[in-house]
Amino acid sequence: MDQNNLIVYLEFEDGRVADVSLELLTKGRVLASKLGVKLEAVVVGDNLDGIEEQVFPYGVDRLYKVSDKRLSPYTSNPHSAVLINLFKEIKPQICLMGATCIGRDLGPRVSSCLHSGLTADCTALEIGDHKDPKTGVEYKDLLYQIRPAFGGNIVATIVNPECRPQMATVREGVMKKEIFDASHKGEVIELDANKYVSDKDFVVEIIDRHIEKSKINIKNSPIIVAGGYGVGSKENFQLLHDLANVLGAEVGASRAAVDAGFTEHARQIGQTGVTVRPKLYIACGISGQIQHIAGMQDSAIIISINNDPNAPINTIADYVITGDIEEVIPKLIKYYKKNSK
Question: Could you give the angle at the alpha carbon of 282 between the alpha carbons of 277 and 288, nearest 5°?
Answer without folding.
Answer: 80
